[in-house]
Amino acid sequence: MVSVNAATLPPTPHMKATSQPAPAAVSVSLAKPEPQYSVQVNLSETGTHKSAQENGKHADIDASNLPDNVKTVLKSVREIQERINEKMDELKAVMNDHLLPIKSREAKIHGLQIELTCLTSELNKATQALRRTENEMKLSTAEKNLSKALANPYR
After folding, report:
1. Is residue 82 part of a domain?
2. Which residues face 28 on adjacent strands?
3. What angle, 0 to 180 degrees and rounded to 10, lies between the N-to-C axes of helices 68-95 and 102-136?
4. Is residue 27 a part of any domain in this protein?
5. 90 with 105: CB under 8 angstroms?
6. 2 φ, ψ (degrees, to nearest 5)
7. Quick one: which of 82, 89, 96 has its CA closest to 112?
8. What whole-number distance in Å separates Cα of residue 55 and Cα of residue 75?
9. Domain-embedded: residue 105
10. Does some domain include residue 94?
11. Taking the complete model, does pTM exceed 0.90, yes or no?
């Protein structure tokens, strides 16, 4: 903050002499006030429960002694696997929904198969990234076996 007291300034040539008294002090502020933000989030009981489940979903990965890079890739692999499982369930439901017209059912099945193909490709890339990260980090055989077990918890 900069303060200027006009009473203490020397007169300048372009100033006119007046009979009015100079103001006692002039204050100029160049500092911008900081904005004040406040956000409050309240989760429902269901939201709180779901959040707790999400945090616990990868607790075994977090508890392992593996490097953080490996843990991050492992979590990604699991999330892709979970999405594949969800799409498979969706595909089974559509295949068993005989109330849908045949053309609609075939179109939905085809769309889900395409999504599954993309997810499978994504899983392959993530698994390759995991193996590459393990090798770059020079993990021991025991650590690689642990990583493999954590990557496939459904088996």
Report:
1. yes
2. 2
3. 170
4. no
5. no
6. -110, 130
7. 89
8. 11
9. yes
10. yes
11. no
Domain that holds residue 107: 48-151
CB atoms within 10 A of CB 151: 22
pLDDT of the chain along its 155 residues, tens only?
554 555 545 555 554 555 555 555 555 556 666 666 655 555 566 655 455 555 578 899 999 999 999 999 999 999 999 999 999 999 999 999 999 999 999 999 999 999 999 999 999 999 999 999 999 999 999 999 999 999 987 66
Structural domain total, the chain = 1
Looking at beta carbons, which pairs linking 106-115 to residues 24 or more positions away fall under 8 Å? 112/87, 115/87
Give the DSSP letter string of the chain: -EEE-GGGSPP-TTPPP-SSPPPS-EEE--SPPPP---------HHHHHHHHHHHHHTHHHHHS-S-HHHHHHHHHHHHHHHHHHHHHHHHHHHHT-TTS-HHHHHHHHHHHHHHHHHHHHHHHHHHHHHHHHHHHTT--HHHHHHHHHHH-TT-
> Which residues contact residue 105 at a Cβ distance below 8 angstroms, ignoring those fewer than 6 apart?
94, 95, 97
Residue 54 CA to residue 78 CA, distance in Å, equals 12
